[in-house]
Amino acid sequence: xxxxxxxxxxxxxxxxxxxxxxxxxxxxWQEAADLNQQLLRVGEDVETYNRLGKALFELGKYxxxxxxxxxxxxxxAANPIARKNVARLEAxxxxxxxxxxxxxSTRQQVDMRMFITETGRTALTSLVDxxxxxxxDALITGEKVELRVEGKMVYVVxxxxxxxxxxxxxxxxxxxxxxxxxxxxxxxxVQSDSRNVRILIxxxxxxxxxxxxxxxxxxxxxxxxxxxxLRFDDYEDVLDEEELVEEPETFDEDFVGxxxxxxxxxxxxxxxxxxDDDSLEE
Length: 282
What we know:
CATH class of the largest domain: Mainly Alpha
Strand order of the largest sheet: 1-6-5-2-3-4
Largest sheet: 6 strands, antiparallel
Strand content: 5-15%
Oligomer: single chain
CATH superfamily of the largest domain: Tetratricopeptide repeat domain
CATH architecture of the largest domain: Alpha Horseshoe
Radius of gyration: 21 Å
Distance between the termini: 29 Å
Helix content: 40-55%
């Protein structure tokens, strides 16, 4: 049975939304922002404004990101993702920070999906004694950070050597023993806001002297297990309890615009991205 005109529009729209999510998963933030802006020129919806706000934030465009989340709230004043991010961005804007204060050529991002691994090799932890300033303000989801052992403590620094915070004592003491024993670990930011900085830590090499020793037994590895079934773009938001229940997608209700505007805009965007689809499929 042939698809109706409206069904075809919705199919194309969902395809474009899936592509925008894939671009974010690959840390291709400028392309993600561009695609979401194209979708919004066709019609407004809360989810696209939230995705645009996220991409602009990762690009360090805080004022533009704030406007995107404000538009999401204009459509749905109760949306928890937009409300949290508006509050986060207003704290930055109140300090006169409209763009990322630091542009680091040394910044590296990792695919957060690489942290989905067997129990005991991955841990999620909140940092303590977090430093407040430009270096922490500039952190983005998926940014690689380094673990630096000093005595019995493990400090977390960005790739320029700026101190972010330190690992809590119990986990820190364990990591010191394992790192000094030859193990190696990869760490990346999974959440950074005015209240908290959380990182994921993964064992990437186990020294023969540590064979049979689990890096993160029991409760030390439980937090990472919570994230193991999530999409990349869900990681940061699921860490707030108020966002554990997401709103269902409502394409028909959120989509605004005349039939002609929808059809022309979606067809043009669909043609523009058609050649790239194979490279994003897993």
